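agent> fetching stored inputs for the calcium ion docking request
agent> found them:
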Amino acid sequence: MRKMLTAAATLALAASGVLIPATSAQASTACDRFWSGALPGYVYAFGNTDCGGYFGRAGSHDADWGDNAGAFRGGDDNAATSVLSKDSAGLAVMFHERPGYDGGHLCLEPSEAYADNLAGKTFSNGAAANDNISSHRWVPSSACGTFLD
Ligand SMILES: [Ca+2]
Ligand SMILES: [Ca+2]
Ligand SMILES: [Ca+2]
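agent> prediction call returned; pasting tokens
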């Protein structure tokens, strides 16, 4: 009987061990690595999570990620799933839902460096941020109402 109880206790311990959640909120090592080699003063955009599928960078504003001018063009519109900023002037990057800095906005603060997955993030108006960025500009953090975190 004692032996059976011991076995049961061991099983219970093993079961509880399985229930201990894995450490969450791990930083993206891929984004960390990319940030180390990024150019100061540039914002980078990626089609996939964890800074994968890099498709463009900008040192200035771009009012339309889907036109044929500026840093972001054509298929860059509504494609970003992770973004990275290596600010050099204390500015935040303000991403917009629509071209012309229109629709909802979402800011990446200088201290944040990157957002490794936009899935589940929303613009200031509640619209989904993933695969929906259509313009961006650099602004003081005080001009932002909604931030990536
Ligand atoms: Ca994407
Ligand atoms: Ca453009
Ligand atoms: Ca959009």
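agent> quick read of the result: The chain has two helices and seven strands.
agent> awaiting further instructions
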